[in-house]
Design brief:
The structure is a homodimer. Chain A has about 375 residues and is α/β, with parallel strands linked by helices. Chain A has two domains: about 5-160 and about 320-335, NAD(P)-binding Rossmann-like Domain (Rossmann fold, 3-Layer(aba) Sandwich); about 165-315 and about 350-365, 2-Layer Sandwich (Dihydrodipicolinate Reductase, domain 2), CATH 3.30.360.10. The first copy, chain A, has helices spanning about 5-20, 25-30, 45-50, 70-80, 115-125, 140-150, 165-175, 205, 210-225, 320-335, 340-360; strands spanning about 35-40, 60-65, 85-90, 105, 125-130, 155, 180-190, 230-240, 250-260, 265-270, 275-280, 285-290, 300-305, 365. In chain A, the strands form two sheets. An eight-stranded mixed beta sheet of chain A has the order 13-12-11-7-10-9-8-14. In chain A, helix 3 (about 45-50) links the parallel strand 1 and strand 2. In chain A, helix 5 (about 115-125) runs parallel beside helix 6 and helix 6 runs antiparallel to helix 11. The two termini of chain A are about 35 Å apart. The interface between A and B is medium-sized, with 34 and 34 residues. Chains A, B: InterPro entries: Gfo/Idh/MocA-like_OxRdtase_C (IPR004104), Gfo/Idh/MocA-like_OxRdtase_N (IPR000683), Gfo/Idh/MocA_oxidrdct_glycsds (IPR050463), Glc-Fru_OxRdtase_bac (IPR008354), NAD(P)-bd_dom_sf (IPR036291), TAT_signal (IPR006311). Chains A, B: Keywords: Oxidoreductase. Chains A, B: One of its GO terms (molecular function) is nucleotide binding. Chains A, B: This is Putative dehydrogenase.
Chain lengths: ~375, ~375
Amino acid sequence: MIDFTRRDMIAAAGGIAALALPGATACARADSRTLGYAVVGLGGYGLGRIVPEFANCAHSRLTGLVSGDRAKAERVAAEHGVPTRNIYDYANFDSIADNPNIDIVYVCLPNSMHAEYTIRAAKAGKHVMCEKPMAISSAECEAMIAACKAADRKLMIGYRCHFEATNLEAMRRARAGEIGTPRYFRSEHGFVQGDPTKWRLKKALAGGGSLMDIGIYALNAARYMTGEEPIAVYAHEQTDRSDPRFHEVEDMIEFQLEFPSGVIGSCMSMYSANQSHILLMGDKGRIELEPATGYSGHRLWVGRGRETEITPPPGPGKTQWAGQLDHLVQCIVEDREPIVSGTEGLRDLRIIEAIYRSAKERARVGLA
Amino acid sequence: MIDFTRRDMIAAAGGIAALALPGATACARADSRTLGYAVVGLGGYGLGRIVPEFANCAHSRLTGLVSGDRAKAERVAAEHGVPTRNIYDYANFDSIADNPNIDIVYVCLPNSMHAEYTIRAAKAGKHVMCEKPMAISSAECEAMIAACKAADRKLMIGYRCHFEATNLEAMRRARAGEIGTPRYFRSEHGFVQGDPTKWRLKKALAGGGSLMDIGIYALNAARYMTGEEPIAVYAHEQTDRSDPRFHEVEDMIEFQLEFPSGVIGSCMSMYSANQSHILLMGDKGRIELEPATGYSGHRLWVGRGRETEITPPPGPGKTQWAGQLDHLVQCIVEDREPIVSGTEGLRDLRIIEAIYRSAKERARVGLA
């Protein structure tokens, strides 16, 4: 499936070309198995977080940009050694199909656009990295999975914590039985949302409020820390609708998860207070992370309380983003499923839908 | 209502008598406004925790003992300077009415006996301190309140955390607005329950499992940290009924509380893992206690995270128990309601009943 010879040549060519340009570091470090990414959406996350991370990658290069703002795209392209011919806008996006320098499309658009651009990318023959939440409905997720399958392309969701050293070490120790039988999982995730004009506060673009944005970390962690899928949820939402930030989307939503083993999960999502915390309690101790899923500064304790802080072994990449970006490349090269594939994103969306339904109906909702 | 002259004489006489005996410290420190307590039930808490605390009191003296084990009671009496004539058993308990050295009865019996002994004590003309949970049903609580009211006696519940310096400082800072508007309260309380033969694991004696014993700390804290009464609950119970400890009572029960201001409360009670934690998050910061409600070693942080640990000013008593014991004396002397009166215990029991009902029905239960 992968034309290694062509890839090698592209990688080598990219490396040589890049040496003469700013941002050469990324390409200079690349070995023969590198693939090229086009980042779609040059907003805070795409431009601020993803674009600079290619410098930390071993197998991933930034080779394309998709933006509605040509001037901005040109600035970014110049800074990161992306040829201007590899800049696209939303009108000509599908012609990316003809560009052999772009292997993967990284969708960093508002949530409501994830499905469309993932499907269009797959149809253009590109593998897809899609930011979380995967989409704004499980139906969209299913369509995205189907489109990538039909095009025989990989689909991965941007769950960076699965490549973050502290979270990985927490998972490993939970699975190794270091705290005995897990009994209770808890996670709160929140931050104080500011500007009411942000797309994240518009229902049509975001699909929901804090749960779609930050609470999904608690939900995903409930699953990766327990290694189980919930069988039922109960949720309670609390939003001050008179607050201009929350005219359209929820502020606080708390949800309880029931797991088959009997573990109880308790999660909180909020746009009105700051928290990034994960706790897994077992009958012989506990694992705690705080901050748990931030961009940096993660801390981990394992034991009876916070007496013993753990320094985890290095993660798979130089940074969590580098690990994430390179993982998809390796999955493509080795033709295997990403550890956080579309199925992983779909699972979260199905639970998110059940959470919203539970909060609306004020009743427990079972999960098939 | 209080005969100060008689009390003064009794106190003085007690002080003098006690000087010749071991345990004189308690009495030697007592000033003129002291009252005498009879401790009912010489089990782990009554004997292990309450009896020694009179040595730390300024207004409370141990003047009586009620036990089914005469030999044990005599040993304790000798050790603490209690005259043997002030030893009662459960058969002759009501004759305590004739003993002017006993002003207050402290009920430290299994939960199912709280109502009976509180009512009998009130009928014997004694004020009552009753250990938490106040009783095993709200109906019992109502009968206890009515009996004490009819006898014109004070009734206080042994909520020691209301006299514990760290918890008091946490409440004060919450009320002072130091973390802005409270948004979310969370508390987990649990320990690993051992011996399956304990009365606490017998439904008839305990009235319930971890919630009655340790989870009530989370519930009570939800109320004293927010300063609000919940309007609805949702609970989920998880118990391994094949575990010999849990044939009759629940292990884990998680409950969500809805408060009128919009604060969400999330509480966990468990008999299969250790935790003593309180968190109140506001839009400008958080207050955290851990261990929160133990016998010692309380820690408190106020701010964005755990950067700033707070050393609280001293509590009202030398210890939380001394503060608790002396508070009831002062309330009797000054004829005012204890801050944790029978009404406080009743409120918790009504919520506990709603929690159990919610867990059973798997549905949200509103609170009147």
